[in-house]
Amino acid sequence: MTTNEHTQIWRRGAAELAAGICTGELSAREVVDAHLDRIAAVNGALNAVTLVLAEEAGAAADRADRAITDGNPLRPLHGVPFSVKENIDLAGSATTQGVPALASAIPSDDAPHVRRLRAAGAIPIARTNCPDFGIGWHTTSTLHGATRNPWNPRVTPGGSSGGEAAAIATGMSPLGVGGDLSGSLRWPASCCGVAALKPTLGRIPRAAMQEPAEQPISLQLMLTEGPLARRVADLRVALPVMSGQDWRDPWSVSVSEHLGAGVQRPRIALLPDPSPGGTSPEVQRVVRDIGTAMAEAEYVVEEIEPPGIEQAATVWLDILKSDMSLTVEEMQPPWGSEQGTFVERLFALAEPPSATRVLAAYVARARLQRAWGEFFDAGRVIVAPVYGARPFAAQDSLTDVAGTFARMSITTACNALGLPAVAVPGGLVDGLPIGVQVIGRRFSEEMCLDVAEVIESCAGVATPIDPRHV
């Protein structure tokens, strides 16, 4: 293989790489080495990758190639590299949560979905940066510092899966694993111009492999983990691999991959301004352009919104504050000043927790789940912005927490109600990617992926890119 051909390997998506290895066009070692070379070439400008698993990945690639030579059956992601956010367990490397106190916290086993990716033949190649304990809409950690956006280093890459999104956007990894409590998969994907899947609660099992294994009820109900990639097709390959019931996650369920089979083409509920008056004209224009393209693709498009978007975001905050405030008081988590300030300003937006208020929040959550279920039962999916403005400047990440929360309301609502959503690039504003998301009823991931793929075909794939300098 020529040098030029070698450098092009990292441009391919996960599904394309798996196909190339399967046919013998590529070896797993060539694929891994190409991505290791790409990390060495560009990570210095971004600080997205925090740990390179070069020796382990190389050995795994050699084993994958020997399996092919020996005629063993090939697996869905045979020889394909993937990266893992630093607050998700990967056996053999520390789950640092971005803080020095956990720099040596090495789990004994993989998180359930990470184990499944390995079982499908995928090869861990790197760990990626996240803010302390995955808290915040900008990625800067006490342990590793700030990750920079490859489109503009002065702009946030998003958080908390900002390291993953930046790595995937620049070809350091074709597939990544991150988490989403309030857009932490979809917001970085939007900022960096890649795709991400936030699954329904329980679709992809998640569990900590070291103490404390049991998390507060707010995280059990509203935090999910899922894949990031440059193409929707790669999310589609990763979903069935990562999904399914696992005893370590009591919320996990088994769902037929064909749940959406035979369902008629959904109606598009277009939400250009899900926070009334809070979405910038430029972002509204991106969403309306997508709506026009969907109509031209013969979808029925209507501007109609589900009930109680802002109330759902308020419920999210009340539930999160109710038990996280107690956790903070009892544990004194070793996060940095950035996260401490963020939590203080975010929780200032909610009333002090009380038994009455907390119970009311859970009742309101159930009522909203029913109301949104009825909305989706009319054959709809929602297409909305991930965030109501272009990505903010990295230095302003704590300047307007209240405004950021408001502009993230539709995204946060998905977490409050346990709904699936697929983020995909929708267009550019001032040279920065703007993501849109497809939101559906519970366990309708395949339908959301179908619609996201149509959007992708209209808007185009924005990455991989070389890091840009301003």
From TrEMBL:
Limits of the Amidase domain: 30-449
Pfam families associated with the record: Amidase
PANTHER family according to UniProt: GLUTAMYL-TRNA(GLN) AMIDOTRANSFERASE SUBUNIT A, MITOCHONDRIAL, TRANSAMIDASE
GO molecular function, one term: catalytic activity
Protein family (similarity comment): Belongs to the amidase family.
Gene3D superfamilies: Amidase signature (AS) domain
Protein name in UniProt: Amidase
